[in-house]
Write a structure and sequence with these properties.
With about 475 residues, the protein is α/β, with parallel strands linked by helices. The protein has two domains: about 160 residues, Cytidine Deaminase, domain 2 (3-Layer(aba) Sandwich); about 240 residues, Rossmann fold (3-Layer(aba) Sandwich). Helices cover about 35% and strands about 25% of the residues. It has 15 helices and 18 strands. Strands 1, 2, 3, 4, 5, 6, 7, 8, 9 and 10 form a ten-stranded mixed β-sheet that branches. Helix 7 runs parallel beside helix 8.
């Protein structure tokens, strides 16, 4: 499976510039790469763009100097002969994977042709993922390379979930529309148009969603995702290195016999029992385990509900490097540092192509974060075994977790529906009067542009130096 991933905001900028600059301009993009050799999966991840008229070879050499991969984007005005010429240049000059996409229109009328060059022969690009508002995924027509006419894919250019509103006739009967399992949710998503709401639900079913941390907060998040059918086709990944303790049972929907079972497995069993149609993959481990990190990089959306800052920042690093939507949630009680205990929570959503991540949505001791992120899985396990929860937080209100989970789901659905496509930080707290208040704490663009994650980790993909992730 071969794919290309370009954040929506980056792709819109590229196409707008190509339209403005004229048909003789090509977007020469640098890209990172995500590779899974055992299942023949390779994705180019957009990193940066230069617009070139004429000879593109200098721009290609500059990309290769950075250990990145070339990705060319040309407009709908381009001819087959011009595309063939670029394919031939890539074949002659580049020995690493490279890609080319030609856009014929955009939005409702989009048609995309492309190929990926690895070795002597062009390979088909199976999909173009566009993370951001609506979380779109497009089919790409095959291009045969020099001399080929570009075989037209006779199947629909959009996956059904990606068609414009009102274009697709639903095959669901009236009874299924208004009485089915998801009819109320579909009605809410479609603002009263149930058929439109089912389109959004179908899009969410195809996403691969990961939840890192499946304790009190993460288990509720996983339950709500599964209950809504999210990941039913793409998959729902649950990762946690801890086991269920008796003190978890006041907020986790698990039976007493689950005590001692790894949390990810216990929550997966609960979900499979209630919603057998959802594909669930439990992983026992933390972010320092390579199997967990690799599973997260394969997702489209990552939720984190973890206790420690270095774990959420590690997930933020992966999200930025692989163009993943990252939704970080925290809730309960916290020490304020002034002898007070604060009740509330945070929901922080980071969207690829948009500044804003948990790295700039807070204040951290980066030297300590880097030290903790360098621990391997055994060192982290030993460290965590000596930590008591009372050292990190004064306790937890199970009912305070519910509004935090609910708001995180609202942001997720707004993203799928296309109502929001930027990063956002929402803060929730109970004032001294005891009344709950939500505030938008999203910082200024100037502050976010100085963040070491936001400004320096866009689309690197797998690190090529020794050590991998």
């Amino acid at each position: 499976m071969y794919g290309i991933r370009i954040p929506q905001t980056a792709l819109e900028r590229i196409l707008a510039n190509l339209e403005r600059r004229g048909a003789d301009t090509v977007a020469v993009c640098a890209a990172g790469v995500y590779r899974e050799p055992e299942i023949e999966w390779l994705e180019l991840l957009h990193h940066s763009t230069t617009f070139v008229r004429g000879d593109i070879r200098f721009a290609l050499r500059e990309i290769l100097k950075q250990d990145l991969f070339p990705l060319l984007v040309i407009s709908r005005r381009s001819s087959d002969a011009r595309m063939d010429n670029y394919v031939e240049i890539l074949r002659r000059l580049v020995t690493v994977p490279a890609g080319i996409l030609a856009f014929f229109g955009w939005n409702e009328t989009v048609r995309i042709r492309g190929c990926l060059i690895e070795g002597s022969l062009p390979r088909r690009v199976d999909h173009l993922s566009v993370p951001g508002a609506r979380m779109l995924r497009y089919r790409v027509e095959a291009h045969d390379g020099p001399g080929g006419s570009g075989r037209r894919d006779e199947s629909k250019q959009f996956r059904e979930a990606d068609e414009p509103a009102g274009e697709r006739q639903t095959a669901l009967s009236k009874e299924t529309l208004f009485e089915g399992r998801y009819s109320r949710l579909a009605g809410a998503l479609g603002r009263g148009n149930v058929a439109t709401g089912y389109r959004y639900l179908e899009r969410a079913r195809m996403l691969k969603v990961a939840v890192l941390g499946t304790g009190r907060l993460g288990s509720l998040t996983a339950l709500r995702l599964a209950q809504s059918g999210v990941g039913a086709e793409g998959g729902l990944i649950l990762a946690d290195g801890d086991a269920v303790e008796e003190s978890n049972l006041d907020a986790m929907l698990l039976p007493p016999q689950a005590v001692g079972t790894p949390k990810s497995i216990a929550v997966a069993r609960m979900i499979r029992g209630l919603f057998p149609f959802v594909r669930v993959l439990p992983i026992v481990g933390t972010l320092s385990d390579c199997k967990v990190a690799r599973a997260l990089t394969a997702a489209d959306v990552v939720f984190t509900a973890v206790d420690e800052e270095y774990a959420r920042l590690g997930a933020a690093l992966l999200a930025r490097r692989y163009h993943l939507v990252h939704i970080d949630i925290a809730g309960g009680l916290a020490y304020t540092g002034r002898g007070r205990v604060l009740t509330g929570g945070e929901v922080r959503m980071s969207v690829p192509g948009s500044l804003g991540c948990v790295g700039c949505f807070g204040r951290y001791r980066w030297d300590e974060i880097e030290r903790l992120l360098s621990l391997d899985s055994e060192e982290e396990k030993e460290r965590r075994s000596g930590t008591q929860w009372i050292e990190q937080r004064p306790g937890s209100w199970g009912d305070v977790l519910l509004p935090v989970v609910g708001e995180s789901q609202q942001l997720f659905w707004q993203l799928v529906r296309g109502d929001i496509g930027r990063s956002v930080w929402l803060h929730y707290e109970h004032r001294d009067s005891g009344l709950p208040v939500w505030r938008d704490w999203t910082p200024s663009q100037a502050r976010m542009s100085r963040c070491p994650l936001c400004s320096g980790q866009q689309g690197w993909g797998d690190l090529r130096e020794e050590g991998g992730l």
